[in-house]
Amino acid sequence: MKDNIGKVKPKKALGQHFLMDLNIAHDIVDALSDEVGEVVEVGAGMGVLTRYLIPRFGDRLHVVEIDNESVVYLEKAFPELGTAIEHADFLKTDLQHFGDGIAIIGNFPYNISSQIFFHVLKYRDNVIEIVGMLQKEVAERISAAPGSKTYGILSVLLQAWYDIEYLFTVNENVFNPPPKVKSAVIRLRRNEVKSLNCDERYFTMVVKQSFNQRRKTLRNSLRSLVPADMMDNPLLDKRPEQLSVDDFVTLTNMLSIK
């Protein structure tokens, strides 16, 4: 394998900034557990993570890359991957065909990082771990606890199914081109929850509608969903960022009575 990091000038594609610091790349790969099954790298770009994933996971590694030029580069730089390089849109990829115990890893493009997590949620019974580098603001939002100003829709929906750790911050000067913001690496591990004990589609709708008007109390933001005889419930005095996942389950069940 030829070491072209720093020799090949990467291009900015799909909002992606290419990591040039190999020490950080090594730390990101190290954050992934050995106990996972198939490993799917999202948007490998110039292969800065791929080079460390190959010796650890071998034929368990799959690379999903949408950019034409990046695919050509990866095929030349890592011929040992062969058909494990999939020229595809991760957001349209059926993750079930990778089996169970899947791990997702990547330097996620800023402009689709939230969409990546929403896509993974559809396969939460297959995906047991995610290690990703993304914009620091989004990483803080995902890992935020109830009561935090950054706690929001993704926080609740992901924390319902995953234990989340904010691992470390990454400075902007280690990328080419340098982004205007800092990045961060987070790790999500599937928790033991098998069911939320509520209508899960309705739960998602309640969470989204609650945070769409996050400055209002739930009584106001969910007015169209709350029966008149429940308007006095003290839970509705709160704002959405004050509710835990369990509180949202309780709220969903309360509103489902309607």
In brief, what are we looking at here?
The protein is α/β, with parallel strands linked by helices and 258 residues long. The protein is built from nine helices and nine strands. It folds into two domains: 18-190, Vaccinia Virus protein VP39 (Rossmann fold), CATH 3.40.50.150; 200-256, Orthogonal Bundle (Helicase, Ruva Protein, domain 3), CATH 1.10.8.100.
SSE diagram, text form:
Layout: E1 18-19, H1 22-30, E2 39-42, H2 50-57, E3 61-65, H3 68-77, E4 85-87, E5 102-107, H4 113-121, E6 127-135, H5 136-143, H6 153-159, E7 162-170, E8 175-176, E9 183-190, H7 200-212, H8 218-221, H9 245-256
Parallel strand pairs: 2-3, 2-5, 3-4, 5-6
Antiparallel strand pairs: 1-8, 6-9, 7-9
Helix pairs in contact: 7-9
What does this structure look like?
This protein is an alpha/beta fold and 258 residues long. The chain folds into 2 domains: 18-190, Vaccinia Virus protein VP39 (Rossmann fold), CATH 3.40.50.150; 200-256, rRNA adenine dimethylase, C-terminal domain (Helicase, Ruva Protein, domain 3, Orthogonal Bundle). It is built from 9 helices and 9 strands. The strands form 2 sheets. It has a 7-stranded mixed sheet, with helices on both faces. Mean pLDDT is 92; it is low at 1-14.
User: Could you report the average pLDDT, rounded to the nearest whole number?
Assistant: 92
Sheet having the most strands: 7 strands, mixed
| CATH H-tier superfamily of the largest domain | Vaccinia Virus protein VP39
Helix content: 25-40%
Provide the CATH topology of the largest domain.
Rossmann fold
